[in-house]
Amino acid sequence: MEEQQVNETPVEETEIPRETAPEEQGPSPFEEHIRGLEEQAAAMKEHFPDFDLLEALGDPVFLQLTAPGTGISVEDAYYALHRQEIQRSAARQTREKVVQAIQSGSRRPLEAGTAGQAPSLTTFQYGNATKEQREAFKKELRRAWGRGETVYPSR
Sign of torsion, CA 53 55 61 67? Predict the structure, then answer.
């Protein structure tokens, strides 16, 4: 029988990838979700300065609405839970602005063109005029035409 020769060249060690440490993998999906909630909470503070994310997350319904995978934003969850409060607050602010505008309007001097009565636009009603008024109107029309002016029926 023939003997087979065995190749005795050293075998290169191949590196088997080891699992990387958690800090090397990057943030977990839960950490990303929390970061997203914090960013949304910062944006909420522009409209609602008293908004506190930790306090809101203490409400089980809010926590369930903003859970990962629900697709509901912090703002939508807050509006859903505090709709009546927000509406009452908006109505109160609007009422205060209207009252303030009315009060400030009464303290202002009248400006040109803002008098309390509308301007009067009168036109000559030929059918209701006396004979003297009609004759005066005809005379005025002839003078205007003599000066080359254009006369409109409503004037």
Answer: positive
